[in-house]
Amino acid sequence: MWQLALSVVGLLAHHTQAHGGALNYTVGDTWYNGYDPFGPTTQDNDPTIVQRKWITNNPIFETSNLSLACNVPGTPAHASIPINAGENITAVYYSWVHTVGPMIAWLTDCKGDCRTFDPTGADWFKIGQEGLLWGTIQEGGWFQKEFSRWDGTPSLWSENIPKSLKPGNYLVRHEIIALHSENKPQFYPECAHLEVRGNGTRFPGIEYMAKIPGVYNMSQPEININIYLPGVSNLTVYNIPGPPVWRG
Ligand SMILES: [Cu+2]
């Protein structure tokens, strides 16, 4: 019994550390600094950090939580990532341990300087999403499981900035939705500032747009899901919620 109690404590401690998020970014061979939620507050004045501030790696549980946009507190970054439309933006995770649920990369137009931009009420569009690659919802190979390097080396998630996108300042939002708890989705979002360059002239129409919060609610079966329930666990299709991905 004593041994059992010890191992339960061990599991709990492990899970507390088990949450995570995007900690750095790369474009080509260039690395950009994210905000370390467990690092010093001197980061607040760091001119090299491109990521909005987040102070906890705990998930957000409420689909209506205002912090669903850019995590807690989501304070603007000082720097931004220069990127040409048509290039890939890569988010770097470490020791990501959850395995079930979709991952979605979003952009929103800062309509000026992202350092003064409040994403509340903004229109976001998807530039990429990753879901169930093979097998069943409960046991199959989700991208979330497949991309994670279980040895602690960086786990990389790349999505393309559509080549035709008009230049400007954007927030990029990387979101992992973890669905391993019955009917209790966990949202892990982080935002970074982008300066998109190029000769693009296009911008997605309203059919590609969603508000965050707003895009998810607990009456969506893909969000309020029990992946262990017979009739759900063995499904081989999972429809990622929200608008379609804009490919430019
Ligand atoms: Cu966790």
Automatic annotation (TrEMBL):
<protein>
    <recommendedName>
        <fullName>AA9 family lytic polysaccharide monooxygenase</fullName>
        <ecNumber>1.14.99.56</ecNumber>
    </recommendedName>
</protein>
<keyword id="KW-0119">Carbohydrate metabolism</keyword>
<keyword id="KW-0964">Secreted</keyword>
<comment type="function">
    <text>Lytic polysaccharide monooxygenase (LMPO) that depolymerizes crystalline and amorphous polysaccharides via the oxidation of scissile alpha- or beta-(1-4)-glycosidic bonds, yielding C1 and/or C4 oxidation products. Catalysis by LPMOs requires the reduction of the active-site copper from Cu(II) to Cu(I) by a reducing agent and H(2)O(2) or O(2) as a cosubstrate.</text>
</comment>
<dbReference type="InterPro" id="IPR005103">
    <property type="entry name" value="AA9_LPMO"/>
</dbReference>
<dbReference type="GO" id="GO:0005576">
    <property type="term" value="C:extracellular region"/>
</dbReference>
<feature type="signal peptide">
    <location>
        <begin position="1"/>
        <end position="18"/>
    </location>
</feature>
<keyword id="KW-0503">Monooxygenase</keyword>
<keyword id="KW-0560">Oxidoreductase</keyword>
<keyword id="KW-0732">Signal</keyword>
<keyword id="KW-0136">Cellulose degradation</keyword>
<keyword id="KW-1015">Disulfide bond</keyword>
<dbReference type="GO" id="GO:0008810">
    <property type="term" value="F:cellulase activity"/>
</dbReference>
<feature type="domain" description="Auxiliary Activity family 9 catalytic">
    <location>
        <begin position="19"/>
        <end position="229"/>
    </location>
</feature>
<dbReference type="Pfam" id="PF03443">
    <property type="entry name" value="AA9"/>
</dbReference>
<dbReference type="InterPro" id="IPR049892">
    <property type="entry name" value="AA9"/>
</dbReference>
<keyword id="KW-0624">Polysaccharide degradation</keyword>
<dbReference type="GO" id="GO:0030245">
    <property type="term" value="P:cellulose catabolic process"/>
</dbReference>
<dbReference type="GO" id="GO:0030248">
    <property type="term" value="F:cellulose binding"/>
</dbReference>
<dbReference type="GO" id="GO:0004497">
    <property type="term" value="F:monooxygenase activity"/>
</dbReference>
